[in-house]
Design a protein that fits this description.
Blueprint lengths: L5 E8 L10 E3 L10 E10 L19 E4 L7 E8 L7 E3 L7 E12 L8 E4 L2 E2 L6 E4 L3 E2 L3 E10 L22 E5 L15 E9 L3 E2 L3 E4 L6 E10 L12 E5 L4 E2 L7 E2 L4 E5 L8 E5 L3 E2 L5 E11 L5 E7 L7 E2 L18 E9 L9 E11 L14 E7 L30 E6 L3 H6 L6 E2 L6 H12 L6 E3 L12 E2 L7 H10 L3 E5 L5 E5 L10 E4 L6 E9 L6 E6 L8 E6 L20 E6 L5 H13 L5 E9 L9 E6 L4 E11 L7 E9 L4
Length: about 700
Amino acid sequence: MPATLVFDDLEAVIAPPGGYLEPLAVTLGPNHQANDVRLVFAAAAAASDPAVEDVAMTPDPVTGFTAAYAPAPGFATEGVYYRYLLASDADTSVAWPKPPGWRYFFWSLMTVRGVDPAIAPTAGRLTVSRTTGNAFCTISSVSAPGPGVMVFFLGTTTDLDSNWPSWAASVGIPATGGWKNITSTDKSGDTFFAYGNEPSLAVFGTEFASAGSTGTVTVPLAQGAPAFIGMWVFLPAAPDSSSTGSAITETDSAGTPSSATGTDPASVGSPIVETDSLGTGFNPLAGYWISDPYTLNGDPVAASRVIFDVVTPDGSTAVVETSINNGLSWDVATNYGPVPRLREGDTTTRTVLARVTFTRLSAGGGVPKVKSLKVRIGCTVSADELIPTFYGPCDKAKTKITPGSSGGTGGGSGGAGVTSRGGGLFGGGALVKVHATDPSRLIQLSEWPQVFTGPTGISYDQLGKAMVLDRRPNQTLFNQFSSDHTVDNSLLVWGLGEGGNPWQNIRGVYTSIGSECFYDVTGSFNSRPVPDPRRGSVVWDFDHTVRPVIIGLESELDTAQIVNGWVIKGESTSSKNPVNAYAFNTDPASRYNIFPPPIGIGQRIKRKTFPLAQTAQQCQDIADGSLNNSLGLSNTVTIGIVAHPGIAVGDIARINSPETGVVGRFLIQGYQLQDSVVDQMQLTCFRQTDNP
């Protein structure tokens, strides 16, 4: 079987060097060995001036590297470069004559072990297509000439030639085709965030056992209309190897003869000696691998486990062993068993080694592989980890005396005792109950003292920030999603009447662009597009089968929220000509279309006015989003789990409870966290069923 390629020493960068001709290091990586292949992906361009849009790196190709793909070497930065490493190799660097304001910069390094040294890697440019508004792009098929790994390099940036929405988009990993994340920037790859709009880079690959093609590849993206830079490289896998020794040489020799005198003289030599010899040869039928040391994080040892997944074709073996004495002796490990001879309470062992010994019957036989190997060691060390669960001012306090009873602490001198929860040793005679709210309550209570006129010519998220700072000048933490919607010359005015609610006004600003705003547990004011459980990364997995974590579950389906037509009207406070838009479900394949039964369910139309929507495009975005989130039954699920203060409203959870019919992705809309770790935590989760 061909070799399994191993990727290491990975790097993905989208930030260009700071200064003019500042070098960027081409590092070999700490884990490289001779004959490894070092890959470099590079792509960069200037901002807007066509005369300087193409920027060449110096040198091109990188010193000591070969260009697998470079359409304009010495003129434009775009290419894939590789080098078969030598033991004597040293780090190099490249630089760019950097103009002001780069359009994009993408850079990635990686070391690959197991590449065929006799076949050069091939590379080229990806053909990427995308329809504005879709949460995915497609990549045209690329051919793989034989066994090996196909690697895609995909970056996104703002498209200066496109209309709104022209921001960049975070990049996910294709769901089919066996693609795996290799290295990516934040909010892309394995950390894909479906609403990320910063320049992003993802490098992912898939393995081929023989010649074939990738087929059309669908890549998840955040919504928008980015510009793409995409390249591919195919790394051929090294084949099985075998070698033999030199021919066996046989030498017969006799010692020096001796003579005897007499009537019957004879000569007798020493005994004949036969020597067989074989030249030095490499044995391809056995080998081993030793891990880096697993360091214990404290003592004494509390528990340990060895977990591995090996593939052993007929006639081959892969034996996993561990050593607790730095390799002086080895013990065979059992899958999912403890580390041999590492006893509970051990305070002297500092590291553990793992070794895998491979054997096969013949050079042409199947090759054993280790797909994964984990050594987990738990030590009796503990530390308090504080997770913030709330931030905000206290607005009410209640004090009361609780009568004493068994299981509580008795009062002295006739005073009442306090019944502790479930019985206990502590009490003081009085119970103080404190109520708190988040900072939005302070904004709500701070009515507009005079008319507030919103600035024009700024984005809606900046308008919301200005309104927050007007009511809370000491607010310093903001974490906002940037909006391309800009307040036009129409004046937006609040506080014209008595009893206004500034917090409601601020929420209305974000609602008018399909977003939401809230305070988090750190006191930061946040805004973002309304989360959609169909997109984005799953944060929590709640299972009721293989690894049960659900204590109780209740599911409710409701038809009341089914709406198949929206009419949106925009009426900014000074707009002379209100704008409007509509969206209807006319898809005959949908069971919730507006056509009469039996084709659909008839018209279920809803009208809504947004006072802050100033443009027809805003109204259309609101109408489209409202329709998309109102098709199907509303499914509200309440589950009980072991308390976990790290769960946040807006997280996406995957719930698997087949016996109740609840299987899929849900949005966590709220939770109740009790004051005791023994009480379960109640989560309220929501999704719209049958939503295309």
